[in-house]
What does this fold into?
Amino acid sequence: MGKWLVIGSEWVYRVVKANLTWLGLVILGGGIFGFFPATIALARLVNKWLQGEKKVPIWQVMWREYRLHFKLGAQLTIIYGGSLVVILVNLRLAFQIHHLYFMMIAYMLIFLLAIWLISLMYLFPLIANFEGSCFGYLKQAIAIGLKDFKILGMQIIGIFLIWLLNLEFSSLLLFGTAVIWQLYTAYCCRKVVEKITKAQVAYQ
It folds into this structure.
C-alpha cells in the first residue's frame, strides 16, 4: 500500500509540474503563439514517459523542445488559426443566406471543421514520435485520424469527458488538463499506428 502511495504521489507531482510548465510556456509565447510550441514540448515529454523514461527533468526537457520546435509551432499556429478563422467566418455567412447553394457550402465547411478538429487531435503525438515537415504532419494527422473510426470515437468521447471534468473541477485546467489530454491522445494515436503497422506486415 505504501509503495503504491509513493508511486501515485510521484505521478501527481509529475503531472502538476508538467502542466504548470506547459502553461508557463504558453504565456511565455504570448498565449496564441505559445500554445503550439508548448504543446509540442509537452507531447515530447509525455512520449518519453510512455517509453519508460519516467525520471527525466521536466523543465529542462520541455524548455529544450520548446526552443527547438518554436518555428514549427509558429507555422502551425498560423495554419490552424488562419484556417479556423476562414472556416468560421464563411460558415456564419453561409447560414445567414437562406439559399440551397449556400446551405451546401455550409455543410462543406462543417466537414472541413471536423477535419480540422480530427487533425488537431492526432497532430501532437505524431510530432512527438516522428520527424517531418509542417504539411507532412498535417497530412499524416488527417490520414491517421480517418483510418480507424472506432479509435476516433474513443478520442472524441475522451476529450468530451476531460471537458466535463474541467467544468466540474476548474482547477484541473491549471494542474492537469493538458497532460491528461496529451496522455490520452498519445495512447489513441499509438493504437492506430500499431494497427497500420500490423496491416502492413500482414500484407508483406
